[in-house]
Automatic annotation (TrEMBL):
The organism of origin for this protein: Methylobacterium aquaticum
GO BP term (any one): negative regulation of DNA-templated transcription
Gene3D superfamilies assigned to the protein according to its UniProt record, in alphabetical order: Chorismate lyase-like, Winged helix-like DNA-binding domain superfamily/Winged helix DNA-binding domain
Domain HTH gntR-type: 7-75
Region feature (Disordered): 245-272
Family annotation (PANTHER family): MANNOSYL-D-GLYCERATE TRANSPORT/METABOLISM SYSTEM REPRESSOR MNGR-RELATED (PTHR44846), MANNOSYL-D-GLYCERATE TRANSPORT_METABOLISM SYSTEM REPRESSOR MNGR-RELATED (PTHR44846:SF1)
Gene giving rise to this polypeptide: phnF
Protein name, per record: GntR family transcriptional regulator
Entry-linked PROSITE patterns: HTH_GNTR
Length: 272
């Protein structure tokens, strides 16, 4: 058996144990099998097992007690933020007020072709581009890249964007967010994003691309967002509609978004 750490195998064991802890199959306070037992059970070198346990410990999911063993502890920090898809635009403002933001870049550039097409801009039109990391309780959960037409971006400053949600700034300047289109998928974290979100390179992320339009149909914001799936999730309420034989699931009427002043902290759920 080699003494070298096998990163992929260490990560596989880490993910296996992490899933068991997060799902509750391994209860808080439970003692994990010792390194020799885990190594034999999973056909791994002990140093590889130790690396997997170190990853769990770095997330606060286990506690190492010298001479006693490794014990499961309940996930630390807030549970994931849950965004209501049907009520997304108003929910974003409420969420922005409940979280912090770290502004990484702020600049004006010529709109890339794909951005110009999505926002229905003229060739060569400039946009304000920003990159932000949003945090909840001091922990990063989303990496946001936004492009807005220059005419909109000039209504707020870099300092404004570092302190106020973008939708609030846009509405303050008279821009009306009337409708949006979006696509949700999955991707892997590159080095820059992984560093900003405190993840390992190659970690899975939720990917969202949204384009917001005003009542006249002009694009006012292009958002590319990457979310840590352990700290952010999307939710949609559905109802059964249609006649017999043609029943289908339909989005329910959006629920009112509670303001931060009426939302009880115990019910705020971390995830974005």
């Amino acid at each position: 058996m080699t003494s070298a750490i096998e990163p992929h195998k260490a990560r596989r064991l880490y993910l296996l144990l992490r899933d068991q802890i997060i799902s509750g199959r391994l209860a808080s306070g439970a003692r994990l099998p010792g390194e020799p037992v885990l190594a034999a059970e999973h056909s791994l070198a002990r140093v590889t097992v130790r690396r997997a346990l170190d990853l769990l410990a770095s997330e606060g999911l286990v506690r190492r007690r010298p001479g006693s063993g490794t014990f499961v502890q309940a996930p630390a920090g807030p549970r994931p933020v849950v965004a209501d898809l049907p009520n997304l635009l108003s929910g974003l403002i409420a969420m922005g007020r409940a979280t912090g933001v770290r502004l990484l870049s702020f600049e004006y550039v010529t709109a890339p072709a794909a951005i110009a097409e999505a926002l229905l801009l003229e060739p060569g039109e400039r946009v304000q581009r920003s990159v932000r990391v949003r945090l909840i309780d001091g922990q990063p959960f989303s990496y946001l890249t936004t492009h807005v037409p220059e005419r909109v971006g000039l209504s707020y400053s870099e300092a404004d964007l570092a302190a106020t949600p973008l939708l609030s700034l846009m509405e303050r300047s008279g821009v009306v967010a009337d409708r949006a289109t979006q696509a949700i998928g999955a991707t892997l974290a590159g080095p820059e994003v992984a560093g900003a979100l405190d993840l390992e390179v190659g970690s899975a992320l939720i990917e969202l691309t949204r384009v917001v339009f005003d009542p006249s149909g002009r694009g006012v914001e292009h958002l590319h967002a990457l979310y840590r799936p352990d700290r952010y999730a999307f939710q949609m309420d559905l109802v059964r509609t249609g006649d017999a034989g043609e029943r289908r699931w339909t989005p329910a009427v959006p629920r009112p978004v509670k303001s931060e002043s009426t939302r009880r902290p115990a019910h705020r759920r971390p995830a974005p």
